[in-house]
Amino acid sequence: DLETILEKEYLYKKINKTKVLIIDEISMISSSLLDSVDLVLKAVKGNSKPFGGVQIVLSGDFFQLPPVVKTGNFSFAFEALSWQNADIRTCYLSTQHRQKNDKLYEVLSEMRSGNLNESTKLALKSRVGVKPEAGNTTFLFTHNSDVDRYNRDKLMNLKGRVVKLKAKTEGSKKHAQFLLKNILAPEELTLKVGALVMFVKNDPEGRYVNGSLGEVVGFSGNLPRVKLQNGRELLAETVSWSYEEDGKIKAQVHQVPLRLAWAITIHKSQGMTLDSVYADLSKVFVEGQGYVALSRAKSLNRLYLAGLSEKAFAMHNKVLDFDIQAKKESEKWNKIINNFSKEKLQTLHEEFAGKTTDGGKLATDVKTLRLLEKGLTVEEIAEKRGITLSTVLSHLEKNTDKLTLENLLSLQSLLTDDDYDKIKKVAESLSWERLSPLKAKLPSYSYDQIKFARILYFIRLRSQISTAFTEP
Questions:
Q1: What is the DSSP letter of 356?
Q2: Which of 375, 459, 460, 469 could potentially form a cystine with 465 if both were Cys, beta carbons 3.0 to 4.6 Å apart?
Q3: What is the torsional sign of CA 453, 454, 460, 461?
Q4: How far apart are CA 142 and CA 311, in angstroms?
């Protein structure tokens, strides 16, 4: 496997230039998978240091769902040899944002300690059999079969016409089938007005994110209009998922990014905050599953239980032991950090963020940014620095969060307003993620122009600039 990776030039280059690797939901990463990441980075970087010298940032909660493995036997990431060899500094996040000062917070805290008293259990048992109030309540089940059956029954009970949206594929059949099995959108999506749905992909424009809930309120043609929980109504348009190999798109799946969401599995709910939760915890089959389901709710009075079992309270003994050690480590590093001056912390931050190189000189992308701040155009920056226009754009793309409206006004030598609008329209129907599919649809534009449009798009999005660009 390592030889295969090293032989693929595009993959080798992508990994080799990586400086920081962030892994979220670390509880679901097995020790063997983390060790594999360590081996790949060492091989590609040609560096025997832990993770090939790459800075790793691991975030998550080991009290939540453990690794999913076929054999049923697993070991946690903190048991990995690579974890033991790495110089990991622990920061224990203790401020609670979801269940502030609610009885449910006490329940979850006791579960984390491994000592759930009888009065707390009674508080949970009092929620068994309580019917949800009117409104959007998400049902959580342990098994997919229960989820599918419940969603199907709820849809059948709705009146009105049935709209079926079948995913369209192009490219390699084998790779398209792989995509269909691994994306969250169903191959055939069946909807009616009144259906509770969930978006299963992030929107580049930020109108919805993976996990946003809403209700189908109508159709424009066959495309559903969805009213989100925040009251905003939008048209759910078709998006694309791509399978790439050797830097080329081998297959694509086009589908509306929705799935029925009266019910979802507890595994898919991890990371979500739900206003109202109805959970069946009678079939919990792994430690942490009950904890994840309970902690999706904001308060105990918005939690409804169809069933409960002793397994739902269970926490893995290894996690309980690790948690004690993690708190101690966090306290140690907190004391060390508190001894740093503000100036020292700022220097450490700038070094980590890549503002300077190891020698104290400005990083190359920061040099480009400084010239832009002086009012130079992208062409002038390329000429002055002796680099290509494409490199200048790559530098700017790394720093879009630092660009201002004044910068934008000096960045329009590559595109007219009409050019930008044309590229944006195509990108909205596909995705801003990869340039190759956009170039295929926009043959009259260069890669630099499309990349430039992408920079402008995300700067406008982040700066909340709603007016069209005008010449300075």
A1: B
A2: 460
A3: positive
A4: 12
